[in-house]
Amino acid sequence: MAPYPKAYGLTGGISTGKSTVAGFFRKWGVAVIEADLISREICQKGQEGWKRIKEVFGKEVFDPDETLNRKKLGELVFSDEKKRKLLETITHPLIMEQVRSQIRKYFDARQPLVLVEAALLFEAGFDKEFHGMIVVTCKSEQQLERLCQRAGMGKDKALQMIRSQMPLQEKAKRAMFVIDNSGALEQTEEASKNVFDKIKAKKERRTPRWN
Predict the structure, then answer these.
(1) The total number of structural domains that make up the chain
(2) Rounded to 5 degrees, what are φ and ψ at 66?
(3) What residues in the chain have per-residue pLDDT under 70?
């Protein structure tokens, strides 16, 4: 009998190391769906996300060739909570529609485990759709430093982005599994492998929504 298909959400705070952990799972044969890649695809010129953003936010967040300027859009929404939430009402349903479609395809292809890497699964209320949630954490000072280095931004703006998300401690409380990415890479890989082994051994009984 084929393994019961499982879909888990992989989340955490911005710059806590979700992509690093996703890379480990991918190495172990797990199908990984990246919500950020889907977000970029739906915002390509002519796509539904692109159309909706243009209708709501106007030309100010687009380049002269009508390409969405993600930096301008980010600066706009992270300085205005109402606009950020408005953007999320546009993008989140479109992203999850694609996520569900990809999960169904993986399940049809008899892929036993699918991991969805996304930053805002709890915030958007999509965590209930998965068999379980994996949260990647690190120390708050590490998160701030990593974001500043990765995005090349000052501490004030980085803190603004971090605080726009659900507190990391709250996500960890609601998780089925927590992976600490505060230490060496080898430690993170060991912790990830431990979670991977537990998920493989876990007997799922709930029918996934995507069937």
Answers:
(1) 1
(2) 70, 15
(3) 1-4, 204-211
| Distance from C-alpha of 6 to C-alpha of 210, rounded to nearest angstrom | 11
Assess if residue 132 is contained within a domain.
Answer: yes
**Which domain does 36 fall in, by range?**
6-201
**Whether the Cβ atoms of residue 20 and residue 185 lie closer than 8 Å to each other:** yes
The CA distance from 173 to 118, in Å, is: 17
Residue 209: inside a domain:
no
Query: How far apart, in whole angstroms, are the C-alpha atoms of residue 162 and residue 15?
Result: 9
Strand, coil or helix: 19? helix
Containing H/E element for 115?
Answer: strand 113-117
Tokens of 53: 């953003």
CATH number, domain of 52, equals 3.40.50.300
Instruction: For residue 133, tell me if it sits in a domain.
Output: yes
